[in-house]
């Protein structure tokens, strides 16, 4: 009887280990392929990769992805605070006042939005922003990215808030702490790591989103645009466009841009893991 | 005048009658112990007194609750709680705050102390009253997870005391801790009654006998007997109380 249990235990351990190894191997393979194709291109291009505009198709010069970098940077930096703040306050509303009709509506809308195909969002933003403005713009991109990222950040934050044991709310109220003070002084610090993960996951989502901005930003690659009202480019759009071309130098740029995106994720996530400590309950 | 007066208080949660016509009077500066078996409604009484019961949206309360002479349900709940500290059954110090801040925050919120020196003084006073000062004085900047369960509970007691409350509610404060820590908490409680009115809930008749001035016996949501501790323990009026005191129920 004991031996049988021991064998089952070992078999289960081997199964879990094997599945984990498969998952990690696939992920490491993806990272390796991307970086091995992309890093040499970045090294060859040097600093110009970050400051130049893309080359012409048959050019021997590698050029750079400055317009896409600037576009991604500006759109992420504008969309992220809007998405996080809206998500935070919505999550607070729905967790603090779950029976409020507005809370119920927000919860339903957030869940629905999360399942809408992102390309549909791009089409809608094209119709309601690009057409009336008469031009593509970073602003349209920001709106599309905010709509796409909002349900994710909302779901993360509300899940973290709901995971706080009720006993801390009782402790806070028992020392005459008000509702908002409890949220700011007790709940937010307890879930600080979760909040930071939310910010990172949302920024990763915004940085990597392609379909949502397909029809709205204009893919402007002739120069660096820093205005929200003008057409712009984004790194994932450039990767998508250039990888589909038959030109070798464009494909190289695509790999290099993908490596850059991947590296930025790896750096952000690793730093967070070591820097922000979880609150021990 | 009583510190707490409950008259015909009924509590219904999701239609279930949890407290039935509870009437009790807690004199100032006494230790009033509510004892009874698990699930009899002891904790609910405490939550009615400081209105934490309202955190449950399904709870309905009727009857009169007077705290320090005021109708508890007619004043602002935060104003009410400024005068009522509470220690819960499971220790719940704020995990993200240091030992010092866990105590100081209660004083800060209730404006008991504002300046740093005043805060230092009140933190020390509260930790001493909770019999924890000697054990934590060198690690006030540590977080509560380094403390044992009993120390955490005494930290919660210190946090409640730092508000300088007039009433202290204790919800089975020694239920989940070792006998040494339990004894320290009982000693701390006994020493506090000169300054504070204490209402404690326990399922242990031995503990009630050790610390109480007055006791109330609650069973299935109703108070079946109450009075000075000697009277209830020496001449219980109901069979259930007699059996409970003997540890038979």
CATH class of the largest domain in chain B: Alpha Beta
How many distinct beta strands of chain A?
A: 0
User: Main β-sheet of chain A: number of strands, strand sense, barrel status?
Assistant: none
Mean pLDDT of chain B equals 94
Largest interface: A-B, 24 and 30 residues
* Order of strands across the main sheet of chain B: 6-7-8-3-9-10
Query: What CATH architecture of the largest domain in chain B do you see?
Result: 3-Layer(aba) Sandwich
Low-pLDDT runs of 5+ residues of chain A are none
Number of helices of chain B: 10
Shape of chain B: globular
Provide structural commentary:
The complex is a heterodimer of chains A (281) and B (249). Chain A is an all-alpha fold. Chain A has a single domain, classed as MetI-like (MetI-like fold). Chain A has helices at 2-45, 48-51, 66-96, 101-114, 118-133, 138-162, 166-174, 179-190, 192-208, 235-243, 248-275. In chain A, helix 6 runs antiparallel to helix 9 (192-208). The two termini of chain A are 39 Å apart. By secondary structure, chain B is of the alpha/beta class. Chain B has two domains: 1-83 and 169-249, 3-Layer(aba) Sandwich (Rossmann fold); 95-165, no CATH class. Helix content of chain B is 36%, strand content 26%. Chain B is built from ten helices and ten strands. Chain B has a six-stranded mixed β-sheet, sandwiched between helices. A four-stranded antiparallel β-sheet of chain B has the order 2-1-4-5, covered by helices on one side. The longest helix of chain B is centred in the middle third of the chain and has 14 residues, at 116-129. The two termini of chain B are 35 Å apart. The model of chain B has no long low-confidence stretch (mean pLDDT 94). The A-B interface holds A 99, 165-178, 181, 185-186, 189-190, 192, 279-281 and B 50, 52, 55, 57, 77-79, 81-82, 84-86, 88, 90, 92-97, 105-106, 109-110, 143, 145, 156, 159-160, 163.
